[in-house]
C-alpha cells in the first residue's frame, strides 16, 4: 500500500503522469488517482492547486510515503526550485526525479538536465534520489516507474513496522456524512495501530469519539497499521465539526500561540519581529505574527539564514500537535515562499 505525491510546476507533466498511475478519484485542491492490481495498491496525488497556493503541495507531501518530482525538458523553473526547497525543509526521505516529456528532447540534453539537477540538489534530501525518463506520448517507461515506486513502497512498509506500537494518530484530510453510517473521515494513520471500537479524541476540538468501523481502500477491516490510508466511521460526532488537518488520537497538545526552535532555508532573506508568516503543521495552517526572536540567548529584531533562532508566534486559532511535529514556515509574499522549519520548544 503506497501513496505518492506527484509534484512539480504546472507545465512539468505531473498531471498527465498522475493520470497514468491510476483511476481518477476525489478532486479538490489535490486530485487522487487509485491503482490496485495483484495485491499492490497505489494512491497517486496530483497537487492540482499548486503553484497558485502552497497548501496543496504540503497537503500531498504530508499524506504521502514518497514524492515524485517532475521536471520537463525546459528545465527547472522557480516552482520546481520551490518544490526542492519544500522537500528539503520537510526532510523528505523517499522519492524519485522523473524527467518528463522525454520524447520531445534528445538523450544528451536529458543527461545535461540531469547533471544540472544533481548540482542543485547536492546537499539536500534529494541528493541520492534515482532518476527516470518518461515519454508523454507513448508513456514508455511507466512499468519501470511503477516497479521503482513499489520497491520504495516496500522499504517504507518495513520502516512503518517500527511505528505500529506508537500511540495511534490519524491525520484527516476529508470528512462527510454517509446515509445509514453517519460521519466518515478519510485520512492517513501516521503511526500506531487502530481497531474498531477504539475510543479516541478528535483534536483540536478535543471531542471523544469511537471508531465504529474501518475501511482500507473501500474494504472493511478490523484494524489498520501505521502508513495505511483509512476510512473511519466515527461515532458521537458530525462531519461538519471536522476540518482538514484535524487529528484522531489519544492525546495532542493544543495551543493558539507557539514557540519554535527554527532553522531557516538558505534561500530565504529571513524575517523580522512584527512580520506575519504562514505556519503549517501536518495539514493544519494558520497565520502567525512574529512576537519575539532569540539568537544565542539574546533578543534580536531580524532572523536570517546564518543562525538558528527561537521564535515566539502569536496565532489566530487553536492547533493540535505533538512535540515531535515539524512546523513549516512560509512567507506568501515572496517569490520563493518557504522560509524554514521549526520544532516546538
Sequence-ordered SSE layout with sheet pairings:
Layout: E1 2-7, H1 14-19, E2 23-27, E3 31-37, E4 40-46, H2 55-63, E5 66-71, H3 78-89, E6 95-99, H4 107-121, E7 130-133, H5 142-161, E8 169-178, E9 182-191, E10 194-195, E11 199-203, E12 207-216, E13 219-221, E14 223-224, E15 229-235, E16 247-249, E17 253-255, E18 258-264, E19 271-272, E20 276-281, E21 284-295, E22 298-300, E23 302-303, E24 309-314, E25 319-321, E26 327-330, E27 338-344
Parallel strand pairs: 1-4, 1-5, 5-6, 6-7
Antiparallel strand pairs: 2-3, 3-4, 8-9, 8-16, 9-15, 10-14, 11-12, 11-16, 12-13, 12-15, 17-25, 18-24, 18-27, 19-23, 20-21, 20-26, 21-22, 21-24, 26-27
Task: Give a written overview of the molecule.
By secondary structure, this protein is an alpha+beta fold. The protein has three domains: 2-161, P-loop containing nucleotide triphosphate hydrolases (Rossmann fold, 3-Layer(aba) Sandwich), CATH 3.40.50.300; 169-251, Translation factors (Elongation Factor Tu (Ef-tu), domain 3, Beta Barrel); 254-344, Beta Barrel (Elongation Factor Tu (Ef-tu), domain 3). 18% of the residues lie in helices and 43% in strands. The chain contains five helices and 27 strands. Strands 2-3-4-1-5-6-7 form a seven-stranded mixed sheet. Strand 2 and strand 3 form a beta hairpin. It is globular and about 60 Å long.
Amino acid at each position: 500500500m503506497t501513496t505518492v505525491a506527484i509534484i512539480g510546476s504546472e507545465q512539468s507533466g505531473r498531471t498527465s503522469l498522475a493520470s497514468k498511475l491510476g483511476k481518477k478519484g476525489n478532486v479538490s485542491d489535490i486530485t487522487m488517482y487509485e491503482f490496485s492490481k495483484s495485491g499492490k495498491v497505489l494512491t497517486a496525488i496530483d497537487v492540482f492547486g499548486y503553484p497558485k497556493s502552497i497548501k496543496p503541495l504540503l497537503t500531498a507531501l504530508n499524506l504521502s510515503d514518497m514524492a515524485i518530482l517532475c521536471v520537463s525538458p525546459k528545465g527547472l523553473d522557480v516552482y520546481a526550485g520551490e518544490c526542492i526547497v519544500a522537500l528539503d525543509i520537510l526532510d523528505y526521505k523517499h522519492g524519485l526525479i522523473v524527467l518528463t516529456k522525454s520524447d520531445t528532447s534528445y538523450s544528451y540534453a536529458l543527461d545535461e538536465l540531469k547533471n544540472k539537477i544533481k548540482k542543485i540538489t547536492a546537499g539536500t534530501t534529494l541528493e541520492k534520489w534515482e532518476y527516470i525518463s518518461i515519454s508523454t506520448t507513448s508513456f514508455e517507461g511507466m512499468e519501470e516507474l511503477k516497479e521503482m515506486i513499489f520497491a520504495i513502497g516496500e522499504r517504507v512498509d518495513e520502516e512503518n513496522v517500527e511505528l505500529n506500537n506508537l500511540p495511534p494518530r490519524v491525520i484527516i484530510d476529508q470528512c462527510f456524512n454517509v446515509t445509514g453510517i453517519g460521519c466518515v473521515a478519510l485520512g492517513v494513520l501516521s503511526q500506531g495501530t487502530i481497531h474498531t471500537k477504539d475510543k479516541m479524541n478528535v483534536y483540536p476540538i478535543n471531542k471523544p469519539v469511537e471508531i465504529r468501523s474501518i475501511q482500507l481502500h473501500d474494504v472493511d477491516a478490523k484494524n489498520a497499521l501505521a502508513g495505511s490510508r483509512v476510512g473511519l466511521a466515527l461515532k458521537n460526532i458530525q462531519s461538519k465539526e471536522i476540518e482538514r488537518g484535524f487529528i484522531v488520537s489519544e492525546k495532542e497538545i493544543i495551543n493558539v500561540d507557539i514557540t519554535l526552535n527554527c532553522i531557516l532555508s538558505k534561500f530565504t532573506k529571513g524575517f523580522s519581529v512584527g512580520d506575519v508568516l504562514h505556519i503549517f503543521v501536518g495539514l493544519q495552517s494558520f497565520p502567525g505574527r512574529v512576537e519575539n526572536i532569540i539568537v544565542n540567548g539574546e533578543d534580536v529584531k531580524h532572523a536570517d539564514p546564518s543562525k538558528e533562532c527561537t521564535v515566539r508566534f502569536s496565532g489566530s486559532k487553536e492547533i493540535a500537535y505533538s512535540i515531535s511535529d515539524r512546523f513549516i514556515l512560509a512567507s506568501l509574499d515572496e517569490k520563493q515562499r518557504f522560509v524554514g522549519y521549526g520544532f516546538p520548544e
